[in-house]
Amino acid sequence: MGDSRALGFYEYGFLPSERILAHKGATILNIPDYMENLRNLNPSNIFLSYGENDICLGYWDTPQKYAKAVGEVVESIKSELPGATVYVNSIFPVEPKAYEQVEKLKEIPEYNEALNRYCENQGYPYIDNTKTIEEHADLYDVDGVHFQKELYEYWAINLLEEVEIE
After folding, report:
1. Cα Rg of the chain, angstroms
2. What CA–CA distance (Å, rounded) separates 151 from 156?
3. How many C-beta atoms surround the C-beta of residue 120 within 10 A?
4. 3-class SS at 22?
5. Which partner for 49 in 2, 76, 133, 138 could form a disulfide, CB atoms 3.0-4.6 Å apart?
């Protein structure tokens, strides 16, 4: 579940469209729109990848308030699908040229810190993708926000390494 960056898993042919509940410009406020599809899929693992649009639109005054809102979303998903594990992805950083469009994106590290701390306190699995993008910074798309196909392979490995198999 996520925004345009998560949509890349479908657009680049890694997963079928029905497994990707995402759209361009999505924020965590869009998650309720997908709940029926999510219930029908009944997945055991759900990965949330949001944040850039949430920051750009400024719906939350502070990173801490945003992290709490993410927690509320996780709880709503868990109430609908109690057997599923909901993983919260860190917000991928953007290249500095993207700051020219939205300066607030400079705050991504603070948002990630708040998300990580909140998830840790609540016992939610948090997946930090920062190192992945730092190691593969050459795989940004020309806009400095989105990614080339090859990055999705590294991102997928990072996701799968976090999945707890029972």
Report:
1. 15
2. 9
3. 11
4. strand
5. 2
One-letter identity of residue 74: V
Q: Give this prediction's pTM.
A: 0.93
Question: Could you identify the residue written with the tokens 């469209």?
Answer: 17
Q: Tell me which amino acid residue 63 is.
A: P
Structure tokens at 119: 């998830």
The token duo for 72 is: 């509320």
Which secondary structure element, helix H or strand E, spans residue 123, and what is its range?
none
> Which position has the token pair 């909901």?
86
58-67: list long-range contacts, CB under 8 Å, 24+ apart: 58/104, 59/27, 59/29, 62/114, 63/107, 63/110, 63/111, 63/113, 63/114, 63/115, 64/114, 64/118, 66/111, 66/114, 66/115, 67/111, 67/114, 67/115, 67/117, 67/118, 67/119
- The pLDDT tens digits of the residues spanning 30-78 come to 999 999 999 999 999 999 999 999 999 999 999 999 999 999 999 999 9
